[in-house]
C-alpha cells in the first residue's frame, strides 16, 4: 500500500506539563476527526482549570529558576536550533499528520506549514543573542553637581500564554513558542481543539531535545475553559493569540483584570485589487491563489476581489474557470489541490453565508455548494456583482469563496477597500508603480502586497489594523511583543 494512504502514527494525547505527560484531571476528552472522511481518529485530553493552573505554575517556576534566568542567550538559541533540526528530520511525518488532522493537501503541509515552522525556529533562535538595550545621557532640569545616565535592558515579559487556531496549527504554535523562548520567557500553549495533533507531536520532540522542565507546556482543551483559564491566570503576563475577532475581543476584555500584555492576530476580509493595466496572465491566477489556497482558510485570504470595470468580466470569468478546474480531494491523494474544510461546523457556516449571498442577489459564477462527495468539502466559489451591504462582503467567510465587485474610477478604490471592519492585508495588481505606491498609502491594512498576495516573511512585521488585531509578530516587532524595557537611572558624582 502507498505510505501516503496509511494512517500516520499518532502522538501521545495527554497534557504535557513540567516535562511530563499527564492525564486531564477531569478525565474528559475531545473527539478529533479527519475532515476528508468525517471519521473520528483520536481523542484529546480536555484540560480543566486546575490542569491549566498546574501548567502555568510549572512555567512560572521555570521562569523564576536561576538556571533559566542565567542561561546564556546563545544557549536558548541553540535549543531552538536543535528543535529545528529534529523537526526537519521529522518533517515528512509531521506533514502527513497535519494532513490527516486538518485536511490540507500534503504539499501544503510539507512545503508551507513545515517549511515555515523550521524557518521560524531558526529565525527566532538567531534573535536570542541579539537583543540589546540603550545607554542614555540624561538632561536633568536642575544642577546638583551630579551626572545623570540611564541604561535600559529588554526583560522577558514572563510566562506567555499562547492560544492558536486550526488553519496553520504547527506554524502558529511555533510563532508563539519560538519568540517566547528566544527572548527568555516560558510558555503554556493551548492549541485549537480541532487540530492539536501536530502540536502534541511537537511536545514529544521538545522533550527529546531536552528543554528545561516547564519551559514549554502544551495543554489541549476547549477555548471557553482551558483557553479562558490561561487568560485569567495572574501569573500569565502575556497572551499571544491568533484566532477569530470575536474570541480576540473576549480575550482583550478578560486580560484587563490582570493588565496582561496581549498580541491579537485576528480575522480579515482582505481585498485583491486589480487595475485595468495589470498583467492579467499573472493577476487572474494570483487572485485565485489568494482565495483558494488552503481552501480559503487563511486570515489574509483575498476574499474581496475589486476589479476595474474594463477588465471586470474577463477577471471574473478567469478566476471562475480556475475555480472549476481545481481538483478537490483528500490531502494525502496525489494531485489534490484543494482539501476539505476543517469541520462540519465551519462547512455549515460557509454554506449558510453563500446561501445568504445568493438570496441577497449575488451572481454565482462558479461553485456555490457543498461538494458531492464524502468529507467536508466545499466547491471553490466565485460570487459576482456583490453589493457593499451584503453579509458575504461584510463577514469573514474563512472558506474558498471570493466576492467580486467592480469599480469604475481609481478614486473609488480607497473607499471600497477600506469599507470593512478589518485591516489585515491587501494586494494591488498593476503595471503602474506610481499608482501602486500611492494606493498602498491609502489602504488601511497591516500588509499591502504589489503583484503578489499572501507572502509572509519572518523578517517583516505581521498583524492587522482595526478589528484585525493588536500588535505585530515577526521581525524586530517581536522583541517589543515578548519583552519589556527596564530602565536603570543613575547619578554619578560629577567631581572626580
Ligand atoms: P477561534 O477564535 O474560534 O479559536 C482560536 C483559539 O482560541 C482556539 O484555540 C480556541 O480554543 C481558543 N478560544 C476560544 N474561545 C476562547 C476563550 N474564550 N478564551 C481563550 N481562548 C479561546 O478561531 P478559529 O476558528 O480556530 O480560527 C479561525 C480564525 O482565526 C479566523 O478568524 C482567522 O482569520 C483567524 N486567524 C488569524 C490569523 C492572523 O494572523 N491574523 C492567522 C490565522 C487565523
Describe the 3D structure:
With 496 residues, the chain is an alpha/beta fold. Helix content is 38%, strand content 22%. The longest helix has 22 residues.
List the helices and strands and how they pair.
Layout: E1 15-17, E2 20-22, E3 29-34, E4 39-45, H1 49-64, H2 66-70, H3 73-89, H4 91-102, H5 106-127, E5 135-137, E6 146-156, E7 159-163, H6 169-182, E8 186-190, H7 197-209, E9 216-218, H8 223-232, E10 236-242, H9 245-255, E11 261-265, E12 270-274, H10 280-292, E13 302-308, H11 312-325, H12 344-359, E14 363-366, E15 381-384, H13 391-394, E16 401-407, H14 413-417, E17 422-423, E18 425-429, H15 433-442, E19 447-450, E20 465-466, E21 469-470, H16 477-482, E22 483-493
Parallel strand pairs: 7-8, 7-10, 8-9, 10-11, 12-13, 12-18, 13-16, 15-16, 18-19
Antiparallel strand pairs: 1-2, 3-4, 5-6, 6-22, 11-21, 14-15, 17-20
Bound molecules: nicotinamide-adenine-dinucleotide (NAD).
Nicotinamide-adenine-dinucleotide is lined by residues 163-167, 190, 192-193, 222-224, 227-228, 231, 242-244, 247, 250-251, 265-268, 299, 396, 398, 424, 464, 469.
Strand order of the largest sheet: 14-15-16-13-12-18-19
How would you sum up the major sheet?
7 strands, mixed
Rg over CA atoms: 24 Å
How is the CATH topology of the largest domain named?
Aldehyde Dehydrogenase, Chain A, domain 1
Separation of termini?
83 Å
Ligand set: nicotinamide-adenine-dinucleotide
Percent helix among the residues? 25-40%
**DSSP E strands, number:** 22
Integer average pLDDT? 97
Pfam family, one: Aldedh
Family: Belongs to the aldehyde dehydrogenase family.
Keywords: Oxidation, Oxidoreductase
Active site: 265
Amino acid at each position: 500500500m502507498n505510505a501516503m494512504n496509511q494512517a500516520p502514527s499518532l502522538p501521545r494525547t495527554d497534557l504535557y506539563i513540567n516535562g511530563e505527560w499527564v492525564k486531564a484531571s477531569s478525565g474528559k476528552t475531545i473527539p478529533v476527526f479527519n475532515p476528508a472522511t468525517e471519521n473520528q481518529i483520536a481523542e484529546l485530553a480536555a484540560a480543566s482549570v486546575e490542569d491549566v493552573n498546574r501548567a502555568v505554575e510549572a512555567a512560572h517556576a521555570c521562569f523564576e529558576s536561576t538556571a533559566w534566568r542565567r542561561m546564556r542567550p546563545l544557549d536558548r538559541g541553540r535549543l531552538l536550533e536543535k528543535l529545528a533540526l529534529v523537526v526537519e528530520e521529522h518533517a515528512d511525518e509531521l506533514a502527513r499528520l497535519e494532513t490527516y488532522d486538518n485536511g490540507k493537501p500534503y504539499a501544503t503541509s510539507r512545503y508551507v506549514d513545515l517549511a515555515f515552522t523550521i524557518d521560524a525556529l531558526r529565525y527566532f533562535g538567531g534573535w536570542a543573542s541579539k537583543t540589546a538595550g540603550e545607554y542614555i545621557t540624561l538632561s536633568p532640569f536642575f544642577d546638583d553637581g551630579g551626572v545623570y545616565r540611564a541604561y535600559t535592558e529588554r526583560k522577558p515579559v514572563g510566562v506567555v500564554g499562547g492560544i492558536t487556531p486550526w488553519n496553520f496549527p504547527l506554524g502558529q504554535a511555533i510563532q508563539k513558542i519560538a519568540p517566547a523562548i528566544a527572548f527568555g520567557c516560558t510558555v503554556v500553549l493551548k492549541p485549537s481543539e480541532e487540530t492539536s495533533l501536530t502540536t502534541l507531536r511537537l511536545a514529544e520532540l521538545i522533550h527529546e531535545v531536552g528543554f528545561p522542565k516547564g519551559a514549554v507546556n502544551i495543554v489541549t482543551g476547549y477555548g471557553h475553559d482551558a483557553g479562558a483559564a490561561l487568560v485569567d491566570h495572574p501569573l500569565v503576563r502575556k497572551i499571544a493569540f491568533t484566532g477569530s475577532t470575536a474570541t480576540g475581543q473576549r480575550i482583550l476584555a478578560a486580560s484587563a483584570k490582570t493588565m496582561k500584555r496581549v498580541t491579537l492576530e485576528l480575522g480579515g476580509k482582505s481585498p485583491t485589487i486589480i487595475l485595468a493595466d495589470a498583467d492579467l496572465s499573472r493577476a487572474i491566477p494570483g487572485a485565485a491563489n489568494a482565495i483558494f489556497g488552503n481552501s480559503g482558510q487563511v486570515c489574509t485570504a483575498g476574499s474581496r476581489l475589486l476589479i476595474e470595470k474594463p477588465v471586470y468580466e474577463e477577471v471574473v470569468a478567469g478566476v471562475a474557470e480556475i475555480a472549476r478546474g481545481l481538483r478537490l480531494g483528500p490531502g494525502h491523494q496525489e494531485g489534490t489541490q484543494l482539501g476539505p474544510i476543517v469541520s462540519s461546523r465551519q462547512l455549515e457556516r460557509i454554506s449558510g453565508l453563500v446561501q445568504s449571498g445568493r438570496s441577497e442577489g449575488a451572481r454565482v459564477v462558479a461553485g456555490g455548494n457543498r461538494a458531492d462527495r464524502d468529507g467536508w468539502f466545499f466547491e471553490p466559489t466565485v460570487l459576482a456583482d456583490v453589493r457593499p451591504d451584503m453579509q458575504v462582503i461584510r463577514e469573514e467567510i474563512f472558506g474558498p469563496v471570493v466576492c467580486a465587485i467592480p469599480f469604475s474610477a481609481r478614486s473609488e478604490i480607497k473607499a471600497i477597500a477600506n469599507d470593512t471592519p478589518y485591516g489585515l492585508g491587501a494586494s494591488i495588481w498593476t503595471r503602474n508603480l506610481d499608482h501602486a505606491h500611492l494606493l498602498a498609502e491609502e489602504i488601511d491594512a497591516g500588509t499591502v502586497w504589489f503583484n503578489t498576495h499572501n507572502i509572509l516573511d519572518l523578517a517583516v512585521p505581521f498583524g492587522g489594523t482595526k478589528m484585525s488585531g493588536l500588535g505585530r509578530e515577526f521581525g524586530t516587532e517581536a522583541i517589543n511583543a515578548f519583552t519589556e524595557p527596564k530602565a536603570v537611572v543613575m547619578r554619578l558624582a560629577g567631581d572626580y
